[in-house]
Amino acid sequence: MRENLRKARKEAGMTQQQMADRLEISLRYYQNIEAGSRTGDFTLWDMLEDITGIHQRVLREIS
After folding, report:
1. What is the widest separation between alpha-carbon atoms in the chain?
2. 36 and 61 Cβ atoms separated by less than 8 Å
3. Predicted TM-score (pTM) above 0.85
4. Could you tell me the CA-to-CA distances from 22 to 34, 36, 44 in Å, in that order?
5. Are 18 and 62 in contact (CB under 8 A)?
6. Quick check: 56 and 46 in contact, CB under 8 A?
7. What is the pLDDT of residue 28?
8. CB pairs under 8 A, 24+ apart, for 51-56?
9. Percentage of the chain surpassing pLDDT 90?
């Protein structure tokens, strides 16, 4: 699980569906990224970094 990503999303006050909508991807795809079972492309991680204000290297960590 990418706990840092989950925590950043919650601190941004967003649900998984809201984050998926903002990224223009499906809910299932976002859930898989947050769970650590999908990686996502660099553009997606750039967007996540912009949304959360946290470097993607930190967001990508799987704990």
Report:
1. 26
2. no
3. yes
4. 15, 19, 10
5. no
6. yes
7. 98
8. 51/12, 51/14, 51/19, 51/22, 52/5, 52/8, 52/9, 52/11, 52/12, 54/4, 54/8
9. 97
pLDDT score for 63: 85
- Token pair, residue 36, equals 């650590």
Joined tokens for residue 7 = 């925590």
Q: Rounded mean pLDDT of 24-37?
A: 97
CB burial readout 21-59, b (16+ within 10 A) else e: eebebeeeebeebbeeeeebeeebbebbbebbebebeeb
